[in-house]
Amino acid sequence: MIWTDSLQIEVPRARVPDGVRIYAIGDVHGRVDLLDQVLSRIGVDLATHPTANAVLVFLGDYIDRGPASKDVLDRLITCCATRPTVCLIGNHETYLCEFLRNPEILSAWRQYGGLNTLLSYGIRPSIESDPQERVKLAQALDRALPPSHRQFLNNLKPYFVCGDFFFVHAGVRPGVPLTDQSEKDLLWIREEFLLYEDSFGKIIVHGHTPVLEPEIRANRISIDTGAYATGRLTCLVLEGDDVGFV
After folding, report:
1. Which residues contact 69 (CB under 8 A, 6 or more apart)?
2. Pick from 40, 65, 121, 124: CA 20 to 30 A from residue 139's CA?
3. Distance (Å, rounded) from C-alpha 219 to C-alpha 213?
4. Predicted model pTM
């Protein structure tokens, strides 16, 4: 584990409860290879620095863009079954779930890498599908989606709170209590959240908006480093009032 003392200055009073260690992982987007690497590094870190209460927190956007969305969900389901794990929902997961109910949204979903998700389930859409094909594609995905994947997607959480930290996919709307945030803002908000410099009441740990390097601000920590395009999947570590990365 790499501890960066200078980062502690940014969040001097923010801490997780004693005895708890959080591993927060940014947007995976179908890069199961990078996810496997991060899980391996976490395993090494736990072996080197044991703790009785380690929690993995995934910030959403597990699918689309990258080549192995189905495999990513398989890994996350295994994590949930073998260690304390919290999986949050991202805006990309909402597209998959909505596509099963409303095939017409494929026109929008494809712009966000949805065709790569279909391919990972063995479904091969044409470059430009008509309404009839979109219905058939949704039916094919419904058949191909394992029950474990369906249950996983249905159980995703909108946010997670631990100590002085609030974990969410995209961010929160300034001026609205954290417990009263709308799902749309939790999954989609950008500028209004990113440009806000005052306190949100807790330090917001989020992904959604890619950055070249993890950003540590006084009121938020951004850890989506564009894994599908950059090959860099970030894992933030919080323990006590220490902030680090593996």
Report:
1. 30, 62, 63, 116, 117, 120, 121
2. 65
3. 17
4. 0.94
Domain map (residue ranges) of the chain: 2-89+149-245
Residues 10-52 pLDDT 10s: 445 799 999 999 999 999 999 999 999 999 999 999 999 999 9
Residue 208: which region, alpha, beta or left (left: phi > 0; alpha: psi -120 to 50)?
left
* Assigned CATH for 2-89+149-245: 3.60.21.10
Residue tagged 């690497």 (tokens):
37
In whole angstroms, give the CA distance from residue 73 to residue 189: 24
pLDDT at 8: 41
H/E stretch holding 159 reads: strand 159-162
Q: CA-to-CA distance for 225 and 139, rounded, in angstroms? A: 34
Give yes or no for a contact between 218 and 17, defined as CB atoms under 8 angstroms apart.
Answer: no
